[in-house]
Design goal:
The protein is an alpha+beta fold. The chain folds into 2 domains: 2-144, Jelly Rolls, CATH 2.60.120; 148-209, Winged helix-like DNA-binding domain superfamily/Winged helix DNA-binding domain (Arc Repressor Mutant, subunit A, Orthogonal Bundle). It is built from 8 helices and 11 strands. The protein has helices at residues 2-8, 20-25, 83-88, 109-116, 120-146, 149-163, 173-180, 184-196; strands at 32-34, 39-41, 50-55, 57-63, 69-76, 80-81, 95-98, 102-107, 167-169, 200-203, 206-209. It has a 4-stranded antiparallel β-sheet. It has a 4-stranded antiparallel β-sheet with strand order 2-7-4-5. Strand 10 (200-203) and strand 11 form a beta hairpin. It is elongated, with a radius of gyration of 19 Å.
Length: 222
């Protein structure tokens, strides 16, 4: 029963009914726990398992032509990743690293395709996820190609505050720079100006949003 309750916490399976969780369980590998810093996926890898996060957090990143990391998604409890290679059998495009102690359940490529077909709700949720990722990537590409580095920091900061209800915890400005695709110096400069203008307040590595970030305003004039 505990395993079934765990499966119901996975967003893809949260609407499963009757015997569906049992069918899904039979298609999954046993749960595995990894320490912080463990690499679960590497770019160009031929592996194509899908990972369902039971606890912890996994960061997905791209590597640009200069070898710099560009982080684009944190996979938290209830989410899943690795499905692109499971569907098209091409090499991995991203790296996936546990940013804290993390437990995952894996499905092989073949079994993931079976899981998608277990019910209409699962198939619909997966298709919605696919559409959402395409939209996110499109916006990400637009941001990286049309906005200045300072504007990218502001937009990423606004997005993260909205997602976390006005609170934001970051390990370092260097880490945040990987999300905005820019340098630590640019991030530090933007954060400093926002702090001077009373837009954000810092307490150690936690930031609080005090007033809305208006992207039409020049926060960087000072």
């Amino acid at each position: 029963m505990e395993e079934i309750r765990t499966l119901k916490k996975i967003e893809l399976f949260c609407e499963c009914t009757e015997n569906e969780p049992l069918k899904i369980k039979s298609l999954l590998l046993p749960a595995q726990t990894y320490p912080k810093g463990h690499v679960l996926m590497e770019p160009q890898s031929q592996e194509n398992d899908v990972f369902f996060v039971v606890s912890g957090n996994v960061r997905l990143s791209l590597i640009d032509e200069n070898g710099e990391l560009i982080s684009y998604r944190d996979i938290k409890c209830g989410d899943y990743f690795g499905w692109l290679s499971a569907i098209d059998h091409q090499v991995r495009l991203t790296s996936a690293v546990a940013t804290e102690k993390t437990t995952v359940i894996k499905a092989t490529s073949q079994n993931f395709k079976k899981i998608i077909k277990v019910s209409n709700s699962i198939e619909d949720k997966f298709l919605s996820r696919l559409c959402g990722v395409i939209r996110d990537y499109t916006n990400r590409i637009k941001s990286l190609t049309t906005l200045s580095s300072k504007d990218r920091v502001l937009r990423e900061l606004k997005k993260r505050f909205e997602e976390d209800n006005g609170k934001l915890i970051i390990s370092s400005h260097e880490d945040f720079a990987t999300w905005a695709g820019t340098s630590r110096e640019t991030v530090s400069r933007v954060f400093s100006n926002l702090d001077k203008k009373g837009t954000i307040k810092r307490n150690s590595n936690e930031y609080e949003l005090l007033k809305s970030i208006d992207l039409s305003s020049d926060y960087l004039s000072q």
